[in-house]
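Chapter review: from sequence to fold.
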Amino acid sequence: MKPILDVTFPFKAFSVNKFQKTARTLRRYTTPEGVEYQRNVNLLLPKYIDVAFPFYHMEYQFFYKNVFNKAGEISSRTLDTDNSIKILQDVIFNKYGLNDKNVVSLTSRKMPSANDDYFRIVVHGLTKTDYLNTLGVSITFAV
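The token string follows.
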């Protein structure tokens, strides 16, 4: 797997609930805060990445200053990681003109931070062989 993008964002990830709202007409719209969040994410993304891969593995790391509460459990102040992933994936893939249907695997972690809340995203480009190898499938070519 080749990392084609590795970016640390010095702010807390957004929840889809804060990013989008549903109007009385039941149509979803992006909130003003969501528009600003998209802009901030886009500003930190590199202008170009190597998009010559048919498949992608996404790695999400969410860092929280207070991951644990006083009882030693995961704090309710941390986001459900899956609430942030779809937004971030859409922003990244839209910027580079890619289709997120080609994401074949992902990992997501909540981790403690010594300082502030922030997150990191690493995108790995995969060839078909890389992808099949991650599944434990071996390829043999007849000659």
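Two observations follow directly from the output. The radius of gyration is 18 Å. The longest helix spans residues 81-95.
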